């Protein structure tokens, strides 16, 4: 099975688009996760047969005996990982960490064999989770596994905390508890219409009955979280989908540690998120999917992450049927905080382009850019009828 998945990856996978990033079929394997699935299948096969995959020798230099030793270590690490790797990046990090004392060429060959990211392509992230509550934290939460549908963009997420949690158990309204009990009884009697009505009552009160992977049902309280210290494009804005998808990759299916500092004007908890010891905001910044919200957050560790060369892009509509009434924007690239950070734009025509008034700028998108010279970029998005 592992060899078949690798063949599928090598022969059939094209660069991912939004349309083909989903499942390739009923098996649930996507083009983005086929290497992870192949590795998982080979580890399972190794536990049964003690045989390493055919063809691996073409990618590595060590003997079959050494390869068997790798798979033994990886199998143990895979079982101990909670949850096990789901993305190519997570699988690559597990392989690199587990085989850290082995030859670099062999580790890279193994990663290439499964189509996983090589070490130099992975963004380094710190795994130092605070052992004591930082100053300003009002309370802490441990969430249930996160659903991808609860992530609308790159800086907002909806989480659920079990009502059995010591902090929550004393706050659950009596009518919610009663509705949950009655719902369970209605489902046992296959009265699904009544059960759905009772569940809607629970949802309206800010709670929900969550189905866990082990088929257990848990009453949980809903919290809307605004990631503290970063700002990402809305999902409808340029690069908004990329930011949303990156946050989904980091937290989907995982339990989070949430440190809440306060509440914003929309009723969301402003919080830091930690996922398996990784600081989520730091990852979003390092991957260029968000920028430091310095107007509301002065933490030096986040400012340090963003203290690099950034590319500022102004995006606006360009009417291909009326090119003479549109103008081009030139934006310099420079270090954050330097005099080169300022940028210039021409007047915007027509005046209603992307809802802007004449000469009004949209908020720029920040993306990592290598180099230290000031350059200019012309950025156009074509829209309208051809």
Automatic annotation (TrEMBL):
<dbReference type="InterPro" id="IPR035437">
    <property type="entry name" value="SNase_OB-fold_sf"/>
</dbReference>
<keyword id="KW-0255">Endonuclease</keyword>
<dbReference type="Pfam" id="PF00565">
    <property type="entry name" value="SNase"/>
</dbReference>
<dbReference type="GO" id="GO:0004519">
    <property type="term" value="F:endonuclease activity"/>
</dbReference>
<keyword id="KW-0540">Nuclease</keyword>
<feature type="coiled-coil region">
    <location>
        <begin position="178"/>
        <end position="205"/>
    </location>
</feature>
<protein>
    <recommendedName>
        <fullName>TNase-like domain-containing protein</fullName>
    </recommendedName>
</protein>
<keyword id="KW-0175">Coiled coil</keyword>
<dbReference type="InterPro" id="IPR016071">
    <property type="entry name" value="Staphylococal_nuclease_OB-fold"/>
</dbReference>
<dbReference type="GO" id="GO:0005737">
    <property type="term" value="C:cytoplasm"/>
</dbReference>
<feature type="domain" description="TNase-like">
    <location>
        <begin position="142"/>
        <end position="291"/>
    </location>
</feature>
<dbReference type="GO" id="GO:0016787">
    <property type="term" value="F:hydrolase activity"/>
</dbReference>
<keyword id="KW-0378">Hydrolase</keyword>
